[in-house]
């Protein structure tokens, strides 16, 4: 056993967190609404809005907007997590982040310049990551260790369910962006109200006495201290590589369908997205449930995570070999299978390698840098790849390479089987 494992509370030694019936379903709704915003806006509404404003430079503009907003996403998530740890409450952050996102999404729908779109999306990313940090911390707060795999699988269903709902809403309202943004904001606000009303905060994580003033350097060091733990660090690296590889391609899918894939005559890119997304998300839902259940049943996590990341890397070759509508359908189905299993089981892995139970939200916030950050950085990175290497084929190969590296990063984790 390593030094990190000796200092980390073991599941058998820690008191089981309080658990409320119906909490897993509410977490599924909360995570689905969050992913509906990320996927609906990021995959359809934002690229469509930018393409209408500046069609000649849409790839570069989307990349800049995504890159700048990454600063807001990566900063606000762990900061909000640390603040919710300090207050010992999650619900005010969940509700406040969701309602602020609703207001900002309504404003984003009225933006008519690239600058205003960029500012609006940065602010939405900030408030949505406040919401995300608090929702993510509910799992280690309130779900018993023995049910983490099942809980992670249900939470993981947020991507196929939320992604499908978000893309369908966005595709149907692509010609009415104000309505699309408003509907997506209403979805996340409604989910926040439901979760906070049905599941009141459980006290116990707030500090017993006022915090002593600590120099900024020490605060930053404490904030990032989880990365000094071997298993957490490798989980962070693996998640970041896998998510970056996935969203580098998915984030540009509307432009890929428009500029790279030979679509049938009766399909335009938004309509094609409305077909591909349910295909991908349906296969993702299956692999999420099966992967989470089997990882609990066999008490094995790493094999599921590494094999699914490997599959995700290999299927990126399908649209390179066959840049057709059929090729995209096959790619979407296989990519959904791989990513769903990875996210479901990897979330369980992460909750089992947290260094300190009392810093769960802060450390999950640090981990969410590897989750939220790459999702928003991906358009910037993808733009650079497409522009520098001349097309979308290099983008698929780049995304595949990142996923394969993510599979390798899981192997050094020692504290999880």
Automatic annotation (TrEMBL):
Chief place of localization: membrane
Keyword GTP-binding assigned: no
UniProt-listed InterPro entries: MFS, MFS_dom, MFS_trans_sf
Subcellular location: Cell membrane
Residues of the Major facilitator superfamily (MFS) profile domain: 24-417
Residue ranges crossing the lipid bilayer per the database entry: 23-47, 59-80, 151-173, 179-197, 236-255, 275-294, 303-322, 328-354, 366-389, 395-413
PROSITE patterns: MFS (PS50850)
Pfam name, any one: MFS_1
Keywords for this protein: Membrane, Transmembrane, Transmembrane helix
UniProt superkingdom: Bacteria
Membrane-topology descriptor: Multi-pass membrane protein
Keyword Nucleus: no
Annotated protein name in UniProt: MFS transporter
